Automatic annotation (TrEMBL):
Protein name: Hydroxyethylthiazole kinase
Family to which this protein belongs: Belongs to the Thz kinase family.
Membrane-spanning segments: none
PANTHER family named among the record's database cross-references: HYDROXYMETHYLPYRIMIDINE_PHOSPHOMETHYLPYRIMIDINE KINASE THI20-RELATED, PHOSPHOMETHYLPYRIMIDINE KINASE
Cofactor(s) required, per the database record: Mg(2+)
Any one GO cellular component localisation term in the record: cytosol
Residues annotated as binding substrate: 47, 196
Catalytic activity, EC: 2.7.1.50
Function: Catalyzes the phosphorylation of the hydroxyl group of 4-methyl-5-beta-hydroxyethylthiazole (THZ).
Reaction(s) this enzyme catalyzes, per UniProt: 5-(2-hydroxyethyl)-4-methylthiazole + ATP = 4-methyl-5-(2-phosphooxyethyl)-thiazole + ADP + H(+)
Species this chain originates from: Myroides albus
Gene name of the record: thiM
Amino acid sequence: MNAQLSSLIEDLDKVRKHSPLVHNITNDVVMNNTANALLAIGASPVMAHAIEEVEDMVSIASALVLNIGTLDSSKVKAMLLAANKAKQLNTPIVFDPVGVGATAYRNTVAEQILQQCKPTIIRGNASEIMALAKVNTKTKGVDSTVSSDSAIDLAKQLAKSYACVVVVSGEIDYITDGKEILEVKNGHTLMQRVTGMGCSATALIGAFVAVNNDVLKAAYNAMVVMGIAGELAAANASGNGSMQVNFLDELYKIDQAIIKMYFKA
Ligand SMILES: Nc1ncnc2c1ncn2[C@@H]1O[C@H](COP(=O)(O)OP(=O)(O)O)[C@@H](O)[C@H]1O
Ligand SMILES: Cc1ncsc1CCOP(=O)(O)O
Ligand SMILES: [Mg+2]
């Protein structure tokens, strides 16, 4: 087995053995999907966004996920407070800039998060990564209008500028620390038709970076798991309803044998 796959299987075992607590301050659309995705892979999710408790919650978590899908000023305050605490405790922060580029408010908040929270990992679709890098793309709300290939160079720049790992998702996922670029070829087009697939990817990255200090590998490993589970879910889906449910089942079932059989090098 190659070294990449050994690292993935090691991470998966650790997630299932330690069940790391992943604190999510996320959007109102996907709370259920992402909590279930984290449970299915073996992690422990908590959604908490009250400013009165986020610092306490992140203090007992192994990763913090910030997702700006449905923003309001209280949630932004909560994100900044939680991130500040996470930084003090050296807890990794994963940022999902949902819909950035679509409105001025989202752009301002995303910039604030980049500057003040210094995320460990950013995961977005190509339009979002381009918008974060201040390139004008026509964003279509939360969905990408461009292919992931078109954001590779900007993802690299962004990773360098903010000293973090950047994941651009799409038909091929690209994961970069500004120097190296890893590619994930697994996945299925039906994944785009289920809301919260990108958010689930970000949450799973939270689970993987909670058990692996090698941030680039952790992000890559989470995206391979996403891709394989997405492909297998689509194989038995008759539409987006069954796709959503099958995806959770495939996350639950994924193991060394499945990974070896379906991983696309
Ligand atoms: N055309 C595609 N082919 C295969 N997999 C895809 C495709 N589009 C998205 N995915 C997968 O769906 C998941 C969510 O990615 P994406 O749709 O880019 O995020 P978002 O929902 O934030 O826009 C990722 O795991 C990605 O690899
Ligand atoms: C539809 C929608 N609107 C605001 S947040 C959200 C969910 C986006 O989820 P994803 O980016 O994972 O598709
Ligand atoms: Mg998204």
